[in-house]
Amino acid sequence: MVRHFAFSILLSLSFGFVGCSSGDGTEEAAEQQDEALLRPQLCAGPSGIQCPSKQFCSGSVGKCPGKSQLGVCQQRPQLCPQIFNPVCGCDGHTYANSCVASSVGVSVQSQGACLPPTGPFCGGIAGIPCPGTGRCVDDPRDDCDPTKGGADCGGVCTCVENVLCILGTHFDSSPAVCACVPDNKVVHCGGIAAFPCPGNGKCVDDPSDDCDPKNGGADCGGICSCIQNVLCVRGSHFDPSPAVCACVPDAATQ
């Protein structure tokens, strides 16, 4: 009887020891899971890693997450202070503060409001002109100030409509064009008023009419043709369409 009782106690102790071991393992697994949740989760990059629901991909200020830049997944805030401290989001829009940007899932690229979009590069040592009637102004994004000795500072093209367009044309106010362009794809030029072609376009005889400039038709209207005869700076490309025929900025990428 004594031996049977001792065996029962030993068996109970054994099961109790096993139970404690199982409890320690579960607690350790829970701690590891908590640590994993606290560990930052990378996102974006070449693989385009997505964040879980209710999170967004955030980068440090000035480094927007994208194909060439990794970010870290963060929770989207539900409430934000009503403080006006504007920031420029990586989507190019201005937000009241960084919290508001985060609440809609947008990382911050810079403090302060986003600068207005600018046109092609101009000026500089080469004195690159703007297309159409565009005006070259100082680029607020660089550290070169033409009013403080920077005579060769590069600029950006801006456009303000300062011409009246003839019937059948309209003014394209984009800094890459800044000129009257036809309502259709054919760009007319020449004629009595000697309308010029936009950009680097060349006015040639219109083969669809009966007027031949080689046979007395000095005032014949023509059409614009475009052949690339300029080199575009980095960040821009040549648009060969007769309505542009000039270097235009590349589309912005994140």
Would you mind describing this structure in some detail?
The chain has a three-stranded antiparallel beta sheet with strand order 1-3-2, with no helix packed on it. Strands 5-4-6 form a three-stranded antiparallel beta sheet. It has two helices and 16 strands. With 254 residues, the chain is α+β, with helices and mostly antiparallel strands. Helix content is 17%, strand content 24%. The N and C termini lie far apart (81 Å). A hairpin with a 4-residue loop joins β4 (87-89) and β5 (94-95). The protein folds into two domains: 42-111, 2-Layer Sandwich (Wheat Germ Agglutinin (Isolectin 2), domain 1); 121-249, no CATH class. Residues 1-22 have low confidence and may be disordered. The longest helix is centred in the first third of the chain and has 37 residues, at 2-38. The chain has helices at 2-38, 98-103; strands at residues 42-44, 55-58, 70-75, 87-89, 94-95, 108-111, 121-123, 135-138, 154-158, 169-172, 179-182, 188-190, 202-205, 221-225, 236-239, 246-249.
